[in-house]
Predict the 3D structure of the following.
Amino acid sequence: GTKLLRSQLVQDQFDRMLNEAGMKCPHSANYNANFAGLKFDEMDAIESSEDAYGFLIAIISVVAVCAVVVVLVYVAVNWVSRRRHNRWVGTLTRAQKLQLVREQREETEREKDLNKIMKSLFCSAEVP
């Protein structure tokens, strides 16, 4: 895996991107609006070895383990949060629960009113 990153193949790709960058950038003196890309000679492919596959499998394994850990933390946090919320709601009196429901409805109505009169930046003609 590290052999591939240190190989001439990666360096050649970076060199190609840098050579083409000036022709694609409107602020460059080399800018060409009709630029379609430079033509290069074919490169010899690097023969893959078992080490490269092992490195790829190791990276995929690490990413999968990280993803599983993130999902487990997310589920645990949601479970604890929901449990605490249910306990807290259980301590409220009936009047407090009705007041909470009323406040939530008012907040929802305020949000709906704001959504009616406002546009998101994505839909806006100008972004300040």
